[in-house]
Write a structure and sequence with these properties.
RNA-binding
Length: 566
RNA sequence: GCGCCCGUAGCUCAGCUGGAUAGAGCACCGGACUUCUAAUCCGACGGUCCCAGGUUCGAGUCCUGGCGGGCGCGCCA
């Protein structure tokens, strides 16, 4: 498909003597008009002619330069239409030839993308909020993998900070009252909530927590550290169960604690650039030059311990030295926009020219209809419950609809996970989501299961054709000439990947797959593959297989399973 | 109070980085299963693109100012 747009752009460039980069093709709103369009308005000024006249004049010259592509001037637009059989053959053959690498490229060869994703806090259950960072980050990583980048997915576990001082203090006091061994996460959560309830009334609790964190950070390998280690291990094994269900893996799992030994040199490195100052007993970098009201970045608290920002700086230095990344993407909620702005400003003040490569890939909050989720106040929806319920409901439906299926539980799990993951990737990243069970458990309409169902139907057609021994003949591409809207959409897939990766926006791919699935289901309803003339069946089967390849590849990148039956 | 993000059909959202008549899903209504899976398809209904200015041949899209909602604003992460 690229070949066609390339040819058109080259011809346009020659005919108008403008640079190719300045010319942009669009898709006509009405497909009847053509496959690609070029609006002549921008040329009006330089040529001092009316756009419709320009279109008319250009059309004649272009027609001579283009073979297999019809040119027509319609008002101020030039519309291009590719010869139907040529289009069909070109798109279908390139998809079937590439197979599961269709849409892949080498544009990222030799470049490394670091992605910071998921990053849950230990000692807390994962909520539906953590799901977003996990699935968005994983999709962004696979998008870059497909484009030939070297990617490094890092799960930056929240395993450090004063909150663990609190937890250790709470464990110290009430540890006997909870069952840490059999039900670790809820037990820790209970302690965390209780600490926050009681710290107001009991100031010694606050001091005990601060002391515990001081000891943790001092490096002393005593009882405090032992407790911390235990909490970490318990949490990580819980997380792994969720990641396995979601099909997410990481190249590195490095908690904040990993950077512990880098903290002093990190602070020193900033100090050496001469931009730090002492303010109210803390070591800070002033960011006033970027905005009068911008708070400074604090590197060390009055008591000498570090903060989130210090550890994030240590992490980004470490990553830069290790990977010399093209981009380092932080898939973190929008509530931390200020934090990342501050970090980038610090890098900027340090004179590091790679500062723009660090990007905060922010996303909207998941809220409950009645308001904000809060772990402390018990107003959360646990991810595990959502996954369980989605899987259960999908299995239930499957048993009802497809009694012949031998493994309804396994497929139900695929559909359930697909519904949850796809739903989270469906809309633009930045948009907030109001969590409702009704929405995550929807299996009809604009949902993951709709796309999965499309894939299952296409797979079924392939199976039936093979069983009947049909469709292996020479394709009559005239037979799919009428299906050019679908074929053009298939051809667009590689560009969708490029754009989705560049913008770190998986929703471009989910939206594309929804639109494509709509076209496919409509096509299936009105065209029969089996039992036609050999050339017709072969061509239609090739088209169906092309659709299957694109849907399957797209779902793979999103991390949504593509069942062949459901 | 200040800063950032969002505002498109009753609800949830697209809108190809400024182009031709603003599109889907859900819900509601009417049709289509002895024919490759009805988790589907076809049709009907549904719009002051938050408001007011501005830039432009052209604005849902860009700029300014409002309004509404969300998030954040020095020793939490």
């Amino acid at each position: 498909m690229q070949a066609f747009t390339d040819a058109i752009l080259t011809a346009l460039a020659q005919e108008t003597s403008l640079a190719r980069e300045d010319l942009k093709l669009e898709t006509p709103r009405n497909p009847e008009l053509g496959d690609f369009a070029f609006p002549c308005f921008p040329l009006a000024k330089t040529l001092r002619k009316a756009p419709p006249k320009i279109a008319q004049e250009l059309a004649e010259g272009l027609a001579k330069r283009l073979e297999g592509i019809e040119v027509q001037a319609t008002g101020p637009y030039l519309n291009f239409r590719i010869d139907r059989p040529i289009l069909a053959r070109s798109v279908i053959e390139s998809i079937l030839k590439a197979g599961d690498t269709f849409g892949h490229s080498q544009e990222g060869a030799g470049k490394t993308i670091v992605i910071d994703l998921s990053s849950p806090n230990i000692a807390k259950p994962m909520s539906v909020g953590h799901l977003r960072s996990t699935v968005i980050g994983a999709a962004i990583q696979r998008l870059h993998d497909a484009l030939g980048y070297t990617t490094v997915g890092i799960n930056h576990i929240g395993d450090w900070g004063s909150q663990f001082g609190k937890l250790i203090a709470a464990l110290d006091r009430w540890g006997e009252e909870v069952d840490l061994d059999n039900d670790p996460i809820p037990a820790l959560l209970k302690l965390y909530v209780r600490y926050h309830e009681e710290e107001e009334a009991d100031p010694t609790l606050k001091e005990a927590a601060a002391a515990a964190f001081r000891e943790l950070e001092s490096g002393v390998d005593g009882p405090v550290r032992a407790v911390w280690r235990k909490m970490t291990a318990l949490s990580l094994s819980e997380f792994d169960r969720v990641y396995a269900r979601l099909g997410v893996t990481f190249d590195e799992v490095r908690g904040e604690a990993f950077y512990e030994s880098y903290l002093d040199q990190t602070v020193q490195r900033v100090v050496d650039t001469g931009i730090t100052e002492e303010s109210e007993g803390a070591l800070v970098v002033s960011l006033k030059q970027f905005g009068e009201n911008l708070p400074p970045c604090i590197l060390r608290k009055t008591d000498g311990t570090t903060l989130y920002a210090t550890r994030d700086l240590a992490a980004v230095f470490h990553r830069w030295e290790l990977y010399s990344f093209e981009r380092c993407l932080y898939v973190v909620g929008g509530d931390q926009r200020l934090h990342f702005r501050q970090l980038k400003h610090v890098l900027d003040r340090m004179g590091l020219e790679w500062e723009p490569r660090m990007e905060h890939i922010d996303f909207g909050m998941v809220r409950l209809p009645e308001g904000r989720m809060s772990t402390r106040h018990g107003k959360v929806v646990f991810l595990q419950d959502v996954l369980d319920e989605a899987s259960r409901r999908a299995t239930e439906i499957i048993k009802e609809k497809n009694v012949n299926l031998t493994n309804p539980e396994a497929v139900g799990e695929m559909i359930g996970m697909g519904a949850v993951v796809f739903n989270d990737l469906k809309r633009e990243r930045v948009k907030d989501i109001a969590f409702t069970w009704e929405e995550v458990l929807a299996f009809e309409g604009d949902t993951g299961p709709y796309v999965q169902y499309t894939h299952a139907r296409l797979s079924s057609i392939g199976r039936k054709a093979a069983a009947a021994g049909e469709g292996s003949g020479k394709c009559d591409f005239e037979a799919v000439a009428e299906d050019s809207t679908l074929i053009l959409e298939l051809g667009r897939y590689p560009n969708v990947l490029v754009r989705a990766a560049a913008e770190a926006e998986p929703s471009l791919l989910t939206q594309y797959l929804l639109g494509l699935s709509r076209m496919i289901n409509s096509w299936i309803a009105q065209r029969r593959v089996l039992g036609q003339e050999e050339g017709v069946t072969s061509a239609r089967l090739a088209l169906a297989n092309s659709c299957k390849v694109v849907v399957s590849n797209g779902l793979g990148i999103l991390g949504v399973p593509a069942p062949t039956e459901m």
